[in-house]
Design a protein that fits this description.
By secondary structure, the chain is of the alpha+beta class. The chain has 2 domains: 71 residues; 133 residues, Jelly Rolls (Sandwich). 37% of the residues lie in helices and 31% in strands. It has 2 helices and 10 strands, in the order ααββββββββββ. The strands form 2 sheets. Strands 1, 2, 4, 7, 9 and 10 form a 6-stranded antiparallel β-sheet that branches. It has a 4-stranded antiparallel β-sheet with strand order 3-8-5-6, with no helix packed on it. It is rod-shaped. The chain starts with a helix and ends in an 8-residue tail after the last strand.
Length: 254
């Protein structure tokens, strides 16, 4: 029993002595590494001993790893931006394809109907006032589509008789209505009596755009108002015409 106890005591003492011995050994190794010279030629290191060179190299490795992490984060961000840009490009391409298809569809449509309504007799009125009244009928035409627009172009000659400053206001109408609900409307030709004269005359070209007159037959006429003594259209009975052109439906408002 005493022999066994002595052995245990010896082992314990040896263990206690081993701890400082190990520390001394590590410190000795560190001191030895610092004593060893390090040739830094061509290595871009500032250390002159092995231990300092290892520490400097370790710091540089950590800096490289940190830079690599930052670059990886930047690459991920750029990849996300690239994905967003690609999505925008695809969306714009899809929108362009839709617009192109619409244009191609319009190009594939047949040209709008176009017709000429001719006449050669003149017309006049001496019952003038502030409101329009019919001075003549020009003719009739048929409209194909219900939602299409209607463009009328009228070439004629207008005359006025009366005191200087008085006038005649002619207007082209469809089914007795102007091309707009605004005061006066469009499709008008106005002629005044110049100063020191008793009449005036002018060739005119008038255009009127009707939004949706509806499909079917329509009548075309000229209305007039004014302050002059007499208003005349196509005085002299020359050949005249109105061009009737049916266009596409108005684009929807966005």
């Amino acid at each position: 029993m005493r022999a066994r106890f002595a052995v245990l005591v010896a082992l314990g003492v040896a263990a206690l002595l081993a701890i400082p011995a190990g520390a001394w050994f590590l410190q000795a190794a560190d001191r030895d590494a610092r004593r060893l010279r390090f040739a830094n030629d061509g290595s871009d290191l500032q250390a002159t001993d092995v231990q300092t060179a290892l520490q400097e190299l370790s710091r540089r490795v950590k800096q490289v790893e940190k830079s690599g992490t930052a670059l990886q984060g930047a690459a991920v961000a750029q990849q996300a931006q690239l994905g967003t840009l690609q999505a925008d490009v695809l969306q714009q391409r899809a929108a362009s394809e839709v617009r192109l298809a619409a244009v191609e569809g319009r190009l594939a449509e047949p040209p709008p109907p176009r017709r000429r309504i001719e006449y050669s007799d003149g017309a006049s009125s001496n019952t003038l006032g502030p409101t329009y009244h019919r001075i003549r009928d020009i003719g009739s035409f048929s409209k194909v589509a219900a939602t299409s627009t209607l463009l009328l172009t009228w070439n004629t000659h207008v005359d006025v008789l009366g005191e200087p400053g008085t006038f005649c206001d002619f207007q082209l109408r469809v089914d007795g209505r102007p091309d707009t609900d605004q005061d006066g409307g469009g499709g008008r030709a106005v002629v005044y009596v110049p100063p020191n004269t008793s009449g005036g005359s002018a060739p005119v070209t008038v255009a009127a755009l009707f939004a949706r007159p509806g499909a079917g037959n329509h009548s075309l006429g000229v209305f007039v108002r004014g302050t002059a003594r007499e208003c005349m259209e196509n005085y002299g009975n020359f050949p005249r015409a109105v061009i009737v052109e049916e266009g596409p439906a108005p684009a929807p408002q966005r």
